[in-house]
């Protein structure tokens, strides 16, 4: 727990105390629970992720912490080379694996009516069991994972997803809009879906993302304007 939260108050219900947690995206607001964070999001999203204003003294303020420790310049090139997760921090790798699974579970429900019985969509308390199955598939394609990945890291990854107060909670089921807002990147859902295709063998709804991959690589190379993904 952040010791500075002792003198802070929940941005939604104004409750004070030592059990407050900061917004994971911008760290500028505190909340006593996920319910309060969600209730306050309509108001907070207008400012979340925006740079803090420069004070009148002219001294620069600290940069807003990003959702990831690092963001590659050409993620679709890395996806094409099947190295999208390589050279990332443990936290970022865990987070992107969890979000790939959660995105696919929601897509399966939305586009095919398929429910993972081991997920929150199937009535489970959390999606940890379904996520373990996903990690087993990823580990069967070892080249997709960073060189430091081990069976112990798999266990750590699942444990990371069991923090119910954070974005990566396996009790939560974010949709496409939530993903875009969290990463402040309209193309992150597409990245997650394309990585999921490399794991599962097909894209959401059985689609083949080859044409879209080629288009995004051309975009990154400066070939033409960015295009939109067809799935909602």
UniProtKB/TrEMBL annotation:
Q: Which Pfam families match?
A: zf-MYND
Q: Which InterPro entries match?
A: TF_DEAF-1, Znf_MYND
Q: Does the keyword Nucleus apply?
A: yes
GO annotations of cellular component type: nucleus
- Per the record, the domain of life is Eukaryota
The MYND-type domain extends over 10-48
Q: Which UniProt keywords apply?
A: DNA-binding, Metal-binding, Nucleus, Transcription, Transcription regulation, Zinc, Zinc-finger
The terms under GO molecular function for this entry are: DNA binding; DNA-binding transcription factor activity, RNA polymerase II-specific; zinc ion binding
Identification of the protein by name:
MYND-type domain-containing protein
State the organism of origin: Drechslerella dactyloides (Nematode-trapping fungus)
């Amino acid at each position: 727990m952040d010791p500075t939260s002792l003198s802070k108050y929940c941005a939604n219900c104004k409750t004070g105390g030592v059990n407050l947690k900061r917004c994971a995206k911008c760290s500028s607001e505190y909340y006593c629970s996920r319910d309060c964070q969600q209730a306050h999001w309509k108001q907070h999203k207008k400012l979340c992720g925006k740079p803090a204003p420069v004070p009148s003294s002219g001294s620069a303020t600290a940069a807003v912490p990003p959702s990831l420790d690092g963001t590659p310049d050409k993620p679709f090139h890395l996806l094409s080379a099947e190295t999208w997760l390589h050279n990332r921090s443990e936290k970022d790798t865990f987070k992107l694996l969890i979000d790939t699974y959660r995105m696919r579970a929601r897509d399966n429900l939305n586009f095919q009516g398929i429910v993972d019985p081991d997920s929150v969509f199937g009535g489970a308390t959390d999606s940890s069991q379904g996520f373990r199955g996903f990690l087993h598939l990823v580990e069967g394609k070892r080249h997709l994972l960073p060189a430091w990945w081990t069976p112990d890291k798999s266990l750590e990854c699942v444990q990371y997803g069991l923090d119910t107060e954070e974005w990566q909670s396996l009790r939560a089921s974010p949709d496409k809009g939530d993903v875009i807002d969290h990463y402040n990147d309209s193309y992150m859902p597409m990245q997650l879906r394309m990585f999921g295709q490399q794991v599962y063998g097909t894209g959401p709804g059985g689609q083949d993302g080859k044409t879209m991959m080629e288009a995004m690589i051309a975009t990154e190379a400066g070939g033409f304007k960015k295009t939109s993904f067809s799935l909602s």
